[in-house]
Amino acid sequence: MYKLLIRPILFWFDPEKVHYFSFSFIRLITKIPFVPTLLKWLYQVDDPRLEREVFGLKFKNPVGLAAGFDKDAKLYQELSLFGFGFIEIGTLTPKPQDGNPKKRLFRLKEDNAIINRMGFNNGGVDAAVLRLMKNKGVLIGGNIGKNKVTENENATSDYLICFDTLFDYVDYFVVNVSSPNTPNLRALQDKEPLTTLLQTLQNQNLNKPKQKPILLKIAPDLTDEQLLDIIDIVRETKIAGVIATNTTISRDGLQSENKVETGGLSGKPLTKRATEVIRFLSEKSHKAFPIIGVGGIHSAEDALEKLDAGASLVQLYTGFIYEGPNLIKQINRKILEKTL
To answer: Where does the Dihydroorotate dehydrogenase catalytic domain start and stop, copy by copy (predicted)?
Structure first.
């Protein structure tokens, strides 16, 4: 029903406005008695064979929602009803910021893709914490970044503020230095500044009574040499793992008119490259650390390819928008079929 009826209607309108409308609609309908139970019945697959233990955390299934969808932790409880095993909120910054000027979100329908140049628009980490205090059992990842006005040489302090503020309210952290939509942010992926940033966060982590897993989210545009550097950095800093991958700045093979827009590309065109990065990291590191696979998952087969390539968990974003919530159920069922 989603692809035949709901999606065509939603795709008539501006994608950012549709996003906020969808949030309001989901929040409204889930307040109706029995609707949460109905959504669980429609979309959730409860089976102990789906459970995963990764970097010390227990996931009820390996399919999560990627960062960027629920930036401000406003809808994580309701979104969990659709069958996600975990929800990643953010990217959050220390101070609220509006992000880049609109229009900044574009559908590429011919390519099953999206281009965004949102620019870490969010209400700030303190506001998100107030909502996370109401969490009722949803496993949450906290994706953190720096404010646009913060120079790179001072970026570590922004990440530390987010880390300390969120620490008691998320289950794991994701360090986002790979978004193409904040000026000079990707320069933090260079080996020296990235090692310093991650080591500082890890030192802070070790000072806590109980540590939380820290993951690094990387761009799909890194070269093999840079990916080898990532393996070295993970080994040196002893962070928990990697999320592969963020959006790409590549426009190879696109058909849509909106391909000329600047920003990060997500969706089907990223499927192959994201899987290649996962496989490279897994093989070259000899599976030394867990990988969360994300990028271009539009079918159960796409998800299984990433798991087979070396991912321990997967995340959806653009595929969730194009294929609808039934995709989560399809992936979990396909995983169960494979275990038989």
So the answer is: 50-337
Its pTM stands at 0.97
Domains and CATH numbers, the chain: 2-339 (3.20.20.70)
Please indicate if the annotation marks 289 as binding a ligand.
no
Residue-wise DSSP of 72-88: TSSSHHHHGGGT-SEEE
Q: Give the list of residues 6+ apart from residue 199 with CB closer than 8 angstroms, or none.
A: 236, 237
Pairing outcome for strands 63-65 and 214-218: unpaired
Whole-angstrom distance, CA of residue 88 vs CA of residue 315:
9
Q: Which residues are catalytic?
A: 179
Q: Is 143 annotated as contributing to ligand binding?
A: yes
Q: What sign has the CA pseudo-torsion 51, 57, 62, 68?
A: positive
- pLDDT, tens digit, for every residue of 186-205? 989 999 999 999 999 999 99
23 annotated as a binding-site residue? no
262 annotated as ligand-binding: no
What are the pLDDT digits (tens) for 12-66?
A: 999 999 999 999 999 999 999 999 999 999 999 999 999 999 999 999 999 999 9
Neighbouring C-alpha atoms within 13 Å toward the C-beta of 184: 11
SS3 assignment, position 27 = helix
